[in-house]
Amino acid sequence: MIYLDYNATTPVAREVAEAMMPFILEHFGNPSSSHSLGKRAKEALEKARGQVAELLGCASSEIVFTSGGSESNNTVLKGVAQRLSEKGRHIITTEIEHPAIFNPAIFLMENGWDVSFLPVDQFGSLDPDNVKKAIRKDTVLISVMHANNETGTIQPIQEIGHISREHGILFHTDAAQSVGKVETDVNHLGVDFLTVAGHKLYAPKGVGALYIRNGIEIEPFIHGGGQEMGRRAGTENIIYNVGLGVACELARKNMKDDMVRLTALRDRLHDKIIAGVPEAVLNGHPENRLPNTLNLSFPGFIGGKILEEIPGLCASTGAACEDRSVTISHVLAAMGVSREIGMGAIRLTLGRPTTEDEVDQVAEWIVERVRL
Q1: Could you tell me which of 182, 172, 132, 173 has the C-alpha nearest to residue 152?
Q2: Do residues 327 and 274 lie in contact, with contact meaning Cβ atoms separated by under 8 Å?
Q3: Which CATH number fits domain 2-7+255-370: 2.40.10.120, 3.40.720.10, 3.90.1150.10, 3.40.50.720?
Q4: Quick one: which of 352, 311, 371 has its CA closest to 2?
């Protein structure tokens, strides 16, 4: 079995699991408790918060632990909407966002908000000028993903951040796919909010974080006690937060080497597949994309069928099969990819454990299957 679905989820890193174990078996205190077990838990919590902050280039006080990317995204969209509804009721986002942005946006529309879904070009890139044109007097939030989960295309977040600051509009980026893979310094990007999903960077599922720039107040998504500086109620998940902290520390230390190695492996995989199937089409930007992501379409085929006949490969498709119909993903559709090409899409995403031998084997499997 060869796993090339790291954009879907990553295995928990051994260092992460080892760091979590003492808080499963021994240090079980509540960080709100004043006794020694509580203090130990509190220390671990704040250490983890610092590790996340260091990866993002921000202050520890700007990190809120959450249950994952979906909660972080919902917190921003709904929290800003509730807090700033008297100032305006217009939000700007894109047609290629993850459902964790798309569906909260639809929810807000159903409750009286106006949302502009901006188009992208054939590479899946957003034109910053379109953001500028979409801004209105009642715009209170711009939310644009940093890197797309299907194609890996990286958006011009810095340019959009500059536009948002010029107009005094809050700016959020869903960086679930980019954190740990490419640089995500919040000051460099110029964002007010940034979403982190733990299971995309070798931490467990069910943990994430949200960067909220100091001085910004939004309505909490979860009300209750005063945990997380009053911004997210509920007894903190020390076990998973510790894991996320260590995962972020590993990412900070290994990112540059990982980027070089994964880019080389991704391009090796691409070259070998194209050598055998020259008609394969790359979906996404040829250069400005995540180092680990390769989305290819095989015209005349259905991506899901290809993968079904390669049982040793764990990967994803760009199409959803329902009954006898095949529809391409909303991301590929927004890029103008035709149905014939889009339904033959396969997403191959690499990770730290990926080897040259695995890449070569997958390329051989795919070429053999398509050339049958």
Answers
A1: 182
A2: no
A3: 3.90.1150.10
A4: 311
| Cβ-Cβ contacts under 8 Å for 265 (sequence gap 6 or more) | 350, 354, 356, 359
What residues pair up with 211 in beta bridges, in sequence order? 63, 194
CA 247 to chain CA mean position, Å: 15
Alpha helices in the chain (DSSP H): 14-25, 36-56, 69-83, 99-110, 128-134, 157-167, 186-189, 238-276, 303-308, 330-334, 339-342, 356-370
Tokens of 353: 């454990």
pTM for the model stands at 0.96
Contact call for residues 296 and 307 (beta carbons, < 8 A): no
How many CA atoms does the CB half-sphere of 166 hold within 13 Å?
11
Contacts of 52 (CB under 8 A, 6+ apart): 63, 196, 209, 244, 245, 248
Question: If we measure between CA atoms, which residue out of 193, 183, 339, 308 comes closest to residue 258?
Answer: 183
Catalytic residue among 58, 248, 314, 321: 321
pLDDT tens digits along 24-63: 999 999 999 999 999 999 999 999 999 999 999 999 999 9
Q: Select 14-251's CATH number: 3.40.640.10, 3.40.190.10, 3.40.50.2300, 1.10.260.40.
A: 3.40.640.10
Residues present in the chain in total: 372
Report d(CA 78, CA 83) in Å as an integer.
9
**Other C-beta atoms lying within 10 Å of the C-beta of residue 37:** 14
Q: In this predicted model, what pLDDT tens digit does every residue of 287-340 receive, in sequence order?
A: 999 999 999 999 999 999 999 999 999 999 865 544 445 678 999 999 999 999
Catalytic residue flag (residue 321): yes
